[in-house]
Specification:
Strand content: 25-35%
Strand order of the largest sheet: 5-6-7-8-9-10
Largest sheet: 6 strands, mixed
CATH class: Alpha Beta
Shape: globular
Number of strands: 12
Number of domains: 1
CATH topology: tt1808, chain A
CATH superfamily: tt1808, chain A
Structural class: alpha+beta
Helix content: 10-25%
Distance between the termini: 42 Å
Number of helices: 4
Amino acid sequence: MKTVGAVEMKRWSRAQYEKMIEAGIFSPDTRAELIDGEIFSMTPQKRRHTLAIRAAEEALKGAFGSGFDVQVQFPLALDAFSEPEPDLAVVPGSWRDYRDEHPSSAVLVIEVADTSLEYDRDRKGSLYARAGIADYWIVDLQAGRIEVCRDPAQCNEAPCGWSYRTIRSFAPGQHLAPLAAPDHPIAVNALLP
């Protein structure tokens, strides 16, 4: 257990978290995710957030095509203590390949940030870097830009001990290509509502 002042904080495993879900501890409308042993409650989505997810889903399906599955807000079983639900994750194969368990990695993860930019950059970015996600994008709705994070590396100052060494920002009018689909660039405008 982690001690915070005079209080001990319980660190949950992914197996314990999944048992809580199966037992119905969370109501059906609860949006939660397990990040490095901590259960985080996610805020309800605003309309722009929802539209950005739909826009990115369409753009990713066009860029990746067959051989990849674009998953929208599905769990990624990253390690024994983490099961985030990124807004979008592109995983190899088809959805049929994941009947028995959640994917454990992705070739691209996208988070849409309206009010969660700091959390998505720091906590989730560090988690995805530690999991070896080579391509992590943040759709920054406030700035109207896409942050592309690549080159995961150890970083003692980061929340999960890892961060991205390369972070580039793309504005409307520009294009960016996923690492796993370099011949299929996506217009920034296609990712913004």
